[in-house]
Amino acid sequence: MKKREFQKHAEPWKGPKNILIKLIIIAGWLILLFLAYKVSQFDYEMANFDPYEILGIPLGASQGEIKKAYRRLSLILHPDKDTGNEKEFMKLSKAYQALTDDEARRNWEKYGNPDGPGVMRFGIALPSWIVEKENSVWVLGLYALVFMVVLPVVVGTWWYRSIKFTGDQVLLDTTQMYYFFFHKTPSMVLKRVIMILAASLEFNKKHNSEIVERHSDNEEVPQLIKKLPNLNEKNKEPPLCYTYSIKARAIIHAHLSRIPLNPNTLEHDRRYIIAKCPYLIQEQVNCVNQLILLAYNRRIQRLPTIETIENCMKLCPMIVQGLWEFKSPLLQLPYINEDNLKYFMNKKKTIKSLQQYAQLNGEERRNILRNFSIEEYDNVMKVLGNMPYVDFQVKYEVMDDENPTDVTAGAIVTVIVTLIRKNMSTLFGDDTVKENSLITENGIDGDVSKESGDVEPEAPVIKRPAWLKQKRGGGKKSKKTGKQTKALPGPKSKMEESPVPSSDKKKPKEEKSRDEESEESDVSDAETNDKSSEEESVQKSNNEDDDQEWEKFRKLHEREKSLEGKSKSSHPVHCPYFPNDKQEYWWTYICDRKSKTLLTVPHHVTSLVEQEVVHLKFTAPNWPGVYTLTVCLRSDSYIGFDQQKDIKLDVKEAPAEITEHPQWEFEDSEEEGPAKEDAHESEYTTDEDLSEDDD
């Protein structure tokens, strides 16, 4: 409620602006309806003038027929008559004139109008003083001022300001500072990440005119620093030692510790700084990722570890929720504070995560918060029920290959991550949920997929196109005919090989002919059965081809969908300590925990409403073996909602015709061959290497 009230007062123009926009939209609709009414009243009859149709005579009528028709209709339409119509009588007179007067008839035949061609003129209404000769010097001077001075200055100012920012509206100087520090410290702890975040030039008055510096900061900031342990304000490293950096760092620490600030001074600074942090943290993730790619391409020597980029990701939900990482995730619920946490600990069971609390039945949940009023408890359940519960499914394959499940050395592996988002209310009162589908106390699901990668995600339902639908009826009938074809050749061969008995010689000619006819019929039946079996096999092969074609079509559809531009609207986040409204975003990536390396670029999922499919691609190692990789999912909005799953990659030796993969070629000289092997050993770790390390 305080957050909504502050947003209302911070943007007093927002309400009148919305009302003005609605009034403009209503006025636009009214103008559109008025124009539509005017168009509907347009006189199409005068636009499509046909004198023969008006007089009711056929084409090529004589002058006598024209005059006769005119007299007859004029007696009816003349204004002096009771049935008269002035408008229709004028049309009748014009039609009679068009057919009786030679010049009017030529005009109608040539231009469609008895009066001749209609002249249309266009012009621009200008003030008279502009075209007057005495004012020509002043007019030219005004044009020169606008197009030679004002316009270049405006465009230059816009360009000068735009080149200072990246695509995410982060200062380029801030990005360069991130690159410097992350390259200098490859393995960075969380508090060091906070120090670099606070040193962003967006918080410096010299680079951002929106920053407010007060004289009271000289007293309030030192007092705030005394309340914050481990702030490391005595660091002499620029720009970490600058005044603006220390102030921003103290405000971020106070925000994570939920320390109240002066509402007239530092509280305004806190709201501005904290609102900027998610964008800056995303830029930090991008910078670390670029440094990792540069290290893989041998352009830099120091490789940032996976802990560095994960610490950047951890910081984002901490900022959004205003909570340290080591604090209980239960503090993200309303009304829950440090004093209430003791109710979640008893002799039978200790509740450490939001998922555990949601799985309890209604009586147990209410009993834990029995000191809360009904309204407070309902609010807690409402917030908890709207929190995300993500079903995290993973499988891998080698696309565009004959055997998608077989991974060869140097092949491009595609890991298909399926995210199915549900509300936490689906877990309410369900004590029978399987353990492998739940998130553990640490927020990490340690479910390990099989070696073959057969953790099947629930792919989005795509209707099969009509051109792939074929009739598959008669399957049972074809099977029967197939059995008959197998049984028929036996008797037939016996009949051909066995000698003719002597009794058959004594048979009459008619009986022999009947036997021959029966044999011929058996042979014809066998031939038809053979044809049917061949047709059945052809149909099966066609169906298999169609299935393969449909599978390729489905994968292509998923690829195109993954390449489409994503919206940034998913679900609102309950974040009372964050000054602005926030949407749920996620990061998913693949890493090697043992070698502490990142294998894929962290994919930022910004549109997970119900279901999202993400394709993560990386190059398999050059050496055969079994590799254990980890697929991670991290939230940028909530603490304790991260998940990870291990996949075992059984890399086989590449075929003989494939000697090298272009993905592993670098521009280095041949003398750097051993360096590549060392890089490989640091990038991937096989299970055999792990067993040797354990020994």
UniProtKB/TrEMBL annotation:
Skewed-composition ranges (Acidic residues): 516-527, 684-695
Membrane spanning stretches: 20-37, 137-160
Keywords: Chaperone, Endoplasmic reticulum, Membrane, Protein transport, Transmembrane, Transmembrane helix, Transport
GO molecular function, one term: protein transmembrane transporter activity
InterPro entries in the cross-refs: C2_domain_sf (IPR035892), DnaJ_domain (IPR001623), Ig_E-set (IPR014756), J_dom_sf (IPR036869), Sec63-dom (IPR004179)
Domain J positions: 50-112
GO biological processes: post-translational protein targeting to endoplasmic reticulum membrane; SRP-dependent cotranslational protein targeting to membrane
Segments for region (Disordered): 443-550, 658-695
Basic and acidic residues bias spans: 493-515, 528-538, 673-683
GO cellular-component term (any): Sec62/Sec63 complex
Compartment(s): Endoplasmic reticulum membrane
Listed name of the protein: Translocation protein SEC63-like
Membrane topology, as annotated: Multi-pass membrane protein
PROSITE patterns, sorted: DNAJ_2 (PS50076)
Superkingdom of source: Eukaryota
Main location: endoplasmic reticulum
Naturally occurring in which organism (per UniProt): Asbolus verrucosus (Desert ironclad beetle)
Biased composition (Basic residues): 469-483
Pfam family, one: DnaJ
